[in-house]
Design goal:
298 residues, 2 domains, three-stranded parallel beta sheet, 12 strands
């Protein structure tokens, strides 16, 4: 029996070692559990649209593109439009045009043209605006659109210096002979207003009427006040002076002078009207006119 126990003990030890070896092997061979599948990365976010650049506080937005206009005048009707010593357009209308363009932010070019080419040139789009002492008549309104009035030159009587007070009433013309240039608005005015009170004598030119006035053959002459004023400044006109009140009759003399434009140039017309209204209101129009004439023309 003593010989059996060592054998059992040895067997027990061998079994224990075998179990130990199996356990240790099991632990060494174990691997970690598989990881869950990776979640795909989200797509990149789209870039936001660029934001408009904001100006600094108080900064004005950029100015709108300026209108452009070629302004035509005659250059032969001083002091309204003429040429200076360098041959450049000058005069009341030219200076006023520059002021209006500045106020309305219009990029302007001022040119001259013969009178008979001015209206056709506007309609042919060679010019964009007329400032050439063009009266706003019914016939012209059929072809072009006008701004508001910027000038109205009155008619005036001129008589001998001893004819009576310069501000004499029209009644003093009763029974007198008054000369006028044939075919003018002034001839029409005399026929309509004084037809039964005075004797009207018509002439081919205003110069012929003035010659008879200086010679004492007629009592007075009716015509454009500016033209008469220029004549009275000459040495040969010392005989005469203005007589009576200015003549301002829309029915015969028209509505005055405006800036002529094509009918479809609405923005240009609105811009000129706004600038003209402001220039009249703040006295700029009168200040410019006073540089050229000693009496009101508006």
């Amino acid at each position: 029996m003593m010989s059996i126990r060592p054998c059992r003990l040895a067997g027990s030890l061998l079994a224990a070692l075998a179990l130990a070896t199996v356990w240790t092997g099991t632990v060494d061979a174990q691997t970690p559990p598989p990881s869950p599948p990776a979640t795909p990365a989200p797509p990149p976010r789209p870039k936001p649209p660029p934001q408009p650049v904001k100006g600094k506080p108080g900064q004005k937005p950029p100015a709108a593109p300026a209108l452009k206009a070629t302004i035509v005048t005659e250059g032969k009707f001083a002091p309204f439009n003429m040429l200076d010593g360098q041959g450049r357009p000058a005069g009341f209308e030219v200076e006023l045009a520059g002021e209006l363009c500045k106020r309305a932010k219009i990029e302007c070019k001022i040119v001259t043209a013969p009178w008979n080419d001015i209206l056709p040139g506007l309609l042919d789009k060679r010019y964009d605006a007329i400032m050439a002492s063009m009266e706003m008549t019914t016939e012209r309104r059929r072809q072009v659109a006008f701004s508001k009035k910027y000038m109205q030159v009155p008619g005036a009587f001129v008589a001998a210096r001893d004819a009576g007070p310069p501000d004499g009433a029209p009644v003093l013309l009763k029974g007198k002979t008054v000369g006028v240039q044939k075919g003018t608005v002034y001839a029409d005015h005399l026929e309509r207003t004084y037809r039964k009170a005075i004797r009207v004598k018509t002439y081919a030119t205003i110069g012929e009427a003035r010659a008879d006035l200086a010679a004492g053959k007629i009592f007075a002459v009716l015509g454009d006040k500016v033209v008469a004023w220029q004549w009275l400044k000459e040495a040969g006109a010392a005989c005469c002076d203005f007589f009576g009140q200015d003549v301002k009759d829309p029915k015969t003399l028209g509505d005055g002078v405006g800036i002529g434009m094509r009918k479809d140039d609405v923005k240009l017309r609105e811009a000129f009207n706004k600038a003209l209204t402001d220039a009249i209101a703040d006295g700029t129009h009168k200040r410019i006119a006073d540089k050229y004439l000693p009496f009101a023309i508006y």
